Amino acid sequence: MEDSDSQDLHQLALRMRREMPCKERTVHLQNFKWTFSGQQAASYLLTHGFAQDAHAAVELCQRMLQQGLFKSIYHKDLFTADSEIYRFSSSMLDNKHKGLTG
Q1: Residues β-bridged to residue 85
Q2: Where are the beta strands (DSSP E) in 1-102?
Q3: Strand partners for 88
Q4: What is the pTM of this model?
Q5: Calpha distance 73→6 (Å, rounded)
Q6: How far apart are CA 96 and CA 19, in angstroms?
Q7: Residue 94 pLDDT class (50, 70, 90 cuts)
Q8: What whole-number distance in Å separates Cα of residue 38 and Cα of residue 18?
Q9: Buried b vs exposed e over 8-38: b needs ≥16 C-beta within 10 Å?
Q10: CA distances in angstroms from 39 to 3, 57, 73, listed in the order given
């Protein structure tokens, strides 16, 4: 059951990476590509019907964060649906650049 859940989360993260607007940000003189805010991720999940409410969206994002599908640029372990900045993991970006559709 856990393998199926992991696979489902991976597919969802791939879809988010394809459909959710991301941008490059510079924080403390360091560039980060493919970034998005916690608020943006939670809103995406709600808008597209992957979460019933804000709490469910945060829980789903927390599970993706724990699986390493994306990470906080500040290395935080707790997902927050606010202005906190996240970026997709390098494996997710590799999939994007290889043209995989997920």
Answers
A1: 37
A2: 23-27, 30-37, 70-72, 85-88
A3: 70
A4: 0.83
A5: 22
A6: 12
A7: low
A8: 17
A9: ebbebbbebbeebebeebeeeeeeeebbbbb
A10: 28, 10, 15
